[in-house]
Amino acid sequence: MKDSGTENIEIDLLLESVYRRYGYDFRSYARASIERRIRQFLADSGCASVSEMIPKILHDREFFSRLARYFSISVTEMFRDPSVYRAVREKVVPLLRTWPHFKVWHAGCATGEEVYSLAIVLQEEGVYARATIYATDFNDEVLERAREGIYETAKLQEATKNYQQAGGKGSFSEYYHARYDAAAMDGSLKERIVFSSHNLASDSVFGEMHLVFCRNVLIYFNRDLQNRALGLFTESLVHGGFLCLGAKEDLRFTEVSDRYEVVDLKARIYKKKEVP
Amino acid sequence: MRQKEAQQPACHVSYEAVVMGGSAGGFKAYAAILSALPTDFELPVLVVQHLHPGDDGSFARHLARVALHPVIEPCDKERIERRQVYVAPANYHMLVERNGTIALSLEGKVNWSRPSIDALFESAALAFGQRVIAVILSGASIDGAVGMRAIKAAGGLTIAQEPATAEYPVMPQAAIDTGAVDEVLSVEEIGRRLIELGARKSQIGV
After folding, report:
1. Less CB within 10 Å around the terminal CB: N or C of chain B?
2. Is the pTM of the predicted complex or chain greater than 0.80?
3. Does a structural domain hold residue A175?
4. Domains of chain B by start residue, with CATH
């Protein structure tokens, strides 16, 4: 193995090149994971070293696109971690009801499965008409797929169990229209969802929110970028608003931990304190 | 083994962490080793066991009953502390950052596994360099073999469970076959060896 100090420099230079040439900022991503993915790409790229990849990154957009595919991970499914949605029904919805209109920010929505899951929960709880859901991602490609809301029928069928465990009150198959292998989410679910491009690394707050849903996004960020994103969430949340993170994302290790109280630790649901 | 030890680098390294990987038959091996490490054993131990994706911490809870140290399933960005055992949660890779924290990741499976032993070991090689001990235990997979090579190349110490004593010999054997394994020991011997290595204090400058 090559001296890891040298490779570290090469990786810094590569990430800097990507940022300055294409505007995608992976410099503040969780380092161990991004290094892993660069080394994986290196093995498939035909290059002998990370530094050999840099001129190609700078001059060959297609080569960069191949690398970008290694960087983008969107592991998601309908009603992923069903108990979280159950906790949302039981502990968040009753408070959402007290607002005549409420806004939800689903940050890092990827291909949208979890946005539709949340829309279904709100619909079944009878509060969807008062909601606006802003579903954002920095990756326009996945955002387009989220907007389309077309998924593999088999995947949706598999998610039926998740839906039931999430406290589903109807039949999951009523929420999509299957045609052979593909199925489209029901149009009524899209009515209150606004899909838009937003980058947690560079963009700012765009509105006052009552619930921020950001699950399994922060784990890709380093501590500084995490604190930036959490700063945005905290700034945009109303007092008493909710923040829902991924199962292994803990506010304890962040700058905003004292701004929140725990609503449900296992579901990682936090509530912004009424008084700062 | 004594003779082989004499071939180790003369300058004694003081270690910062132990990383371990196991799969089928791994629990028994972990139990034997962790129950042998006394409470004054200081090195943090990071454990990857191939788990069913639906495991909700039961492996860690079982291990906690036999280990003398606290056993936890860490959250992302958790700082690695001495005298603790960290078990990778099901469905997440567990990596080590150079700043001494744990990073969890949902990137694709490695060797059909998440968590993957290779993912932990390779990151540990970068983070700790020569100051890490890697141990590969029973399993029917080849996960960990690439990681053992990375640890060895970075100057760390590599130990494999003696395949004849493993419930499933494939995994330790795959690691041994890479030529990157320093010591081949039974689980009882691994426990004793770790205690000995963990007691080493830095002798840099001596």
Report:
1. C
2. yes
3. yes
4. 2-198 (3.40.50.180)
Q: Is residue A76 part of a domain?
A: no
Whether A218 sits inside 8 A of B103 (CB atoms) is no
Pinpoint the alpha helices (H) of B35-154. Answer: 58-66, 117-128, 145-153
Radius of gyration of chain A (CA): 20
Instruction: Mark whether A174 and A59 lie in a shared domain.
Output: no
Domain final residue pick, A13, A45, A71: A71
Last residue of a domain, one of A52, A71, A90: A71
Chain A nearest-CA residue for B109? A75
CB contact under 8 A, B106 and A223: no
| Other C-beta atoms lying within 10 Å of the C-beta of residue B80 | 19
Tens digit of pLDDT for each residue in A197-223?
999 999 999 999 999 999 999 999 999
Q: Domain count of chain A?
A: 2
On the question of a cis peptide bond just before residue B115, with omega within 30 degrees of 0, the verdict is yes
Q: Are residues A49 and A145 in the same domain?
A: no
Rounded to the nearest 5°, which phi and psi values hold at B18? -120, 130
Nearest CA in chain B to A7: B126
Min Cα separation A28/chain B (Å): 13
Using CB atoms, pick whichever of A1, A33, A75 lies closest to residue B103: A33
Nearest C-alpha of chain A: how many angstroms from B77? 7
